[in-house]
Specification:
It is a single chain. The chain is mostly helical and about 120 residues long. The chain has one domain. The protein is built from five helices and two strands. The protein has a two-stranded antiparallel sheet with strand order 1-2. Strand 1 and strand 2 form a beta hairpin. Helix 1 runs antiparallel to helix 3, helix 1 runs antiparallel to helix 5 and helix 3 packs antiparallel against helix 4. The longest helix has 26 residues. The model has no long low-confidence stretch (mean pLDDT about 90).
Length: about 120
């Protein structure tokens, strides 16, 4: 149950980070920020991966959770490489959340593999 809650929290945190500043933008005397929502394009993959991570953590699909977190890590890593020094705190936090999500998915998969499986006994009718 605890891993389900942690997975849901990480997924929801990723969705919330999509609305936070990812890139700081400077136009002359005006400073602004671009969020994941306004960046569009590949950032929709980030949103979809975070929603998938939250849903899959509740269903205990650990390998698919790892795939979703790898997709989110790829999107945030690509964005970090592209924007460089203009990266805002939301992008850094999204990179951290994606990395932590991958770690928890791998830990839960390892724990599930080490648990003994229950045998279903068929009764003869």
């Amino acid at each position: 149950m605890q891993s389900k809650v942690i997975g849901m929290v990480l997924g929801v945190a990723g969705v919330l980070l999509w609305f936070m500043p990812w890139v700081s933008v400077h136009f002359g005397m005006v400073d602004g920020y671009q969020t994941g929502a306004t960046a569009g394009g590949v950032t929709y993959l980030w949103l979809l991966a975070c929603i998938a991570y939250a849903v899959l953590s509740w269903r205990e699909e650990h390998r698919m959770r790892a795939a979703a977190s790898i997709a989110a890590l790829g999107v945030s890593g690509l964005a970090m490489v592209q924007v460089g020094e203009s990266a805002a705190w939301g992008l850094v936090a999204s990179l951290i959340v994606a990395t932590v999500s991958l770690g928890f998915a791998a830990k839960d998969e390892r724990d599930a593999a080490n648990q003994p499986r229950e045998r279903q006994v068929r009764r003869a009718s």
